[in-house]
Design goal:
heterodimer, A: alpha/beta, TIM Barrel, eight-stranded parallel β-barrel, two-stranded antiparallel sheet, 11 helices, 13 strands, 34% helix, globular, B: alpha/beta, 2 domains, 17 strands, flavoprotein (chain B), oxidoreductase activity, acting on paired donors, with incorporation or reduction of molecular oxygen (chain B), FMN (chain B), Diverse_substr_monoxygenases (chain B), NTA_MOA (chain B)
């Protein structure tokens, strides 16, 4: 499978969530649980990721309190609870960073595609082309009750992914609804825009209709990056048809190869070229330079949490060099890049930026500097083409 | 003076998408690029303004079925820009319009509480409502709201959002690493709200923010709008920027407060105000005339006329007299996505008045539109404008002003450099910020703590 940039190079991202992905990570001596709701905290984490030349960060979000259950609050008081809006966290970090991609999570099941499309387009303007959005489907009754607009779960969970596909389609159309050169400022005729270069999108689907155009001019990347996390056939089909980058959770290299086969088959069925979709593997990481210390920390955190840590993603505990071996092996199976979920922040985040990244650089697997100005560019994508740019002008309505 | 000197509040309105904004001027910069917002915000903060304000529109305006192209078109998302500005300013309040018709309370409360955290207590929300099916075409909800329900929905929306803001008391997060207790209360954020518009329950995700709730603005001018403000808002974004109308409006809304157990200082009246400065009053008047001509091109004059005449006047000569044909009565079908068309509901009477003005002054269509379509509120030398603003505030025609420059992004610079120092010298405007939150700047009492305020 074709890699995104130079042969043998892999891409790296981190997923930021609270004090890290282990539920007891907030109790570590260097954790800052009381600062979780400040702009400074998130800005500093993104800046650390940028110092390590990571391609992007994702910021976790849902529309409900964190819970160990899928269908509502778990009533626990021994883990981090409470969260800020991820798009606004990304926007707060944007002016304080210069090159790293910013990918907030957005729940599509309950939000308006028009609002989210303009927010992500604006994040792209504010960050000069570094925005993405991770779209997330949520079937829980608790989130539905926060909105009071629909009863969940529906008869077919697949409906929620079909709705997500419509949602992504609407966002992409809205991003294209202004052509790049629509603003003309023609003083002679008094016209600020060439309105033939603005387009109604006229999307009409099963769940919603959106007229358009967007109120925000076309974002710098044309279309910000769209990503999703997928674990099974239905979300694979959604991802293969709709997103630019999919996060998957293989157990090992062989599992990665199997997932890639499934995804590529869905992509072919959707009529998309293989190189239009990047596949990232997610791993939770406990890192330490000293052999055995990461595993010991994991055991200590498990003891604090009162149970063994489990995750949808593979869990790695070891040295940065050991992790580099794993990443290299999985990349050999065709994985384009990795999203690491630091078990504890800042410990495992700085182990990634200051331990793993230099190790990968020594092996020639990651570039030393940011080469591209945009997030799409970092991932080897061209600027998105505009579906409307070649269209004939809209006739004037009478 | 026997009564104590009143302190002036000043805010800066980022230039918007009506013809107040002059985009044809060579100094006019981008309305989208973040650098424009940074420049504008830093000027306002350098001048110690109370806050910066962003307006919102959720559908591009159309005239005769085509997208309106004569004014600035397009603007960024309000929340996203305000959160990014929180990173490049330290004290300036960050206010934005967010619609209560095409949003849900849970999501908006989450966004404002997040913005208040991310800005360390500087968020403000101008609660607006709309009813039109035209805007609704961009949303899942569609244009479902009957016009007479819009204040009802706005009130209930704000009440619901306030319950969500108050759902965390502020002392739940203990984060005691030793004992392993993160939350003191497993029910933190629990809420339940059932009324005709909102039927929701669960747990809110954002802990209590620095201001408790964002500062609440209200902009409507109708009786229902004033009542809504008197009951629920911290400030009114008014359009009464002339002295007599300002005094009458100020007295009217302050009088309404007692009914809700509120004191006059609990609600600020802040009219929007345009301005033009010059070295002398005469020079400022000359510049103001020039700005008016820039704001009303021939094409803009025709479009303005069409909003009142409610018919296609595309062939009418803006440099000739007003059209002989009378306005078309009935529902306005020409201009969509504008609040201003409602101001001309009696079109025949408006046209009659305009004809009289045009005949008396021998005005062309364009000159007439320049004459009737709103003049700058403050025109003069820095000393004149400073004295005028101060006179308005001391005489209770306003508690301060939301200034609307006509050039992006540098249209506030001259005011900051010349008028603000004079107000500071007179001791009527702060020389520096004395507090950290927007509520501090506005002199508003802290939001009462838990339990939830009685409604």
């Amino acid at each position: 499978m074709t890699g995104p940039t130079a042969p043998g190079e892999l891409r790296l991202a981190v997923a930021l969530d609270g004090c890290g992905w282990h539920p007891a990570a907030w109790r570590e001596p260097d954790a800052r649980p009381r600062e979780l709701f400040s702009g400074r905290y998130w800005t500093e984490l993104v800046q650390e990721a940028e110092r390590g030349r990571l391609d992007f960060v994702t910021i976790e979000d849902t529309l409900a309190l964190q819970s160990s259950r899928y269908d509502g609050p778990d009533g626990r008081v021994d883990q981090v609870r409470g969260r800020l809006d991820a798009v606004l966290v990304a926007a707060r970090a944007a002016p304080r960073t210069r090159a790293i991609g910013l990918v907030p999570t957005v729940v599509v099941t309950h939000t308006e595609p028009f609002h989210v499309a303009k927010a992500v387009a604006t994040l792209d303007h504010v960050s000069s082309g570094r925005a993405g959005v991770r779209v997330r489907v949520r079937a829980g009754r608790d989130e539905a009750a926060h909105f009071g607009r629909r009863d969940l779960p529906p008869a077919r969970p697949a409906d929620l992914f079909d709705e997500a596909a419509d949602y992504v389609e609407v966002m992409r159309r809205l991003w294209d609804s202004w052509e790049d050169d629509a603003e003309i400022r023609d003083v002679a005729t008094g016209r600020f825009i060439d309105r033939d270069k603005l387009h109604h999108i006229d999307f009409a689907g099963r769940w919603f209709s959106v007229r358009g155009p967007s109120i925000v001019p076309r974002p710098p990347q044309g279309q910000p990056l769209v990503t999703a996390l997928a674990h099974a056939a239905v979300p694979y089909r959604f991802a293969a048809g709709s997103v630019d980058l999919v996060h998957v959770t293989p157990r090992d290299a062989a599992d990665a190869a199997r997932i890639l086969r499934d995804l590529r088959a869905e992509q072919a069925a959707a009529g998309r070229l293989a190189e239009s979709l990047r596949v990232f593997a997610d791993l939770v990481v406990f890192l330490d330079d000293a052999e055995g210390r990461a595993a010991a920390r994991r055991a200590r955190l498990d003891e604090l949490a009162g149970r063994e840590f489990r995750s949808d993603a593979a869990v790695f505990a070891g040295t940065p060099a050991g992790l580099a071996d794993v990443l290299e092996e999985w990349a050999g199976a065709g994985i384009d890049g990795f999203q690491l979920r630091p078990a504890g922040v800042p410990t495992d985040l700085t182990a990634i930026t200051r331990g793993l990244v230099p190790e990968l650089r020594r092996r020639g697997l990651v570039p030393p500097e940011y080469g591209a100005g945009t997030l799409r560019g970092l991932l080897g994508f061209p600027r998105a083409a505009n579906r409307y740019a070649a269209a004939p002008p809209e006739p004037a309505a009478t | 003076m026997s009564s104590p000197t009143r302190q002036i509040h000043l805010a800066a309105h980022f230039p918007g998408v009506n013809n107040t904004t002059v985009w044809s001027d060579p100094r006019s910069g981008s309305h989208i690029a973040f650098e424009s917002f940074v420049h504008f915000a830093r000027t306002a903060e350098r001048a110690k303004f109370d806050f910066l304000f962003l307006a919102e529109g959720l559908r591009l305006r159309e005239q005769r079925g085509r997208i309106h192209d004569l004014d600035v078109v397009g603007r960024p998302d309000t929340f996203t820009v305000l959160a990014a500005l929180a990173a490049v300013t330290d004290r300036l309040g960050l206010a934005g319009t967010i619609n209560s018709t095409f949003n849900e309370p849970y999501e908006v409360a989450r966004q404002f509480a997040s913005l208040d955290h991310l800005s360390d207590g500087r968020a403000a929300w101008n609660v607006v409502t709309s009813w039109d099916a035209f805007t609704g075409e961009n949303f899942r909800r569609g244009g479902f709201l009957a016009e007479e329900q819009r204040y009802e929905r706005a009130e209930l929306f704000l009440r619901t959002a306030s319950e969500l803001f108050d759902s965390w008391r502020g002392d739940e997060i203990v984060a005691d690493k030793e004992s392993g207790v993160f939350l003191a209360d497993a029910k933190a954020g629990a809420f339940e709200h059932h009324d005709a518009h909102f039927d929701i329950s669960g747990q809110f995700t954002v802990p209590r923010s620095p201001q408790g709730r964002p500062v609440i603005f209200q902009a409507g001018d109708s009786d229902a709008g004033r009542e809504f403000a008197a009951r629920s808002a911290d400030a009114i974004f008014s359009r009464h920027s002339t002295f007599d109308a300002g005094q009458a409006f100020h007295a009217d809304v302050k009088r309404r407060l007692a009914r809700y157990g509120r004191a006059p200082e609990d609600l600020l009246v802040l009219p929007a105000a345009t301005f033009v400065l010059g070295d002398t009053d005469a020079q400022a008047r000359e510049r103001a005339e020039e700005v008016r001509r820039q704001q009303v091109s021939g094409a803009t004059a025709i479009q303005f006329l069409e909003q009142v005449w409610n018919r296609d006047l595309g062939d009418h000569d803006p440099d000739g007299p007003l059209p002989e044909v009378d306005p078309q009565p009935g529902e306005n079908t020409v201009a969509q996505g504008r609040a201003s068309v409602r101001m001309y509901e009696d079109r025949l009477a408006t046209a009659r008045r305009w004809r009289e003005i045009a005949e008396a002054g021998k005005l062309t269509t364009r000159e007439l539109v320049i004459e009737v379509s709103g003049r700058q509120a403050f025109v003069g030398s820095p000393a004149t404008v400073a004295d005028t603003i101060n006179r308005f505030v001391q005489a209770r025609a306003a508690d301060g002003f939301i200034l609307v420059p006509h050039i992006t992004p540098a249209g506030l610079d001259e005011f900051a450099d010349t008028v603000v120092p004079l107000l500071q010298e007179r001791g009527v405007f702060r020389a520096d910020y004395t507090g950290t939150t927007l509520r501090d700047h506005l002199g508003l009492a802290p939001v009462p703590g838990w339990p939830v305020h009685a409604v």
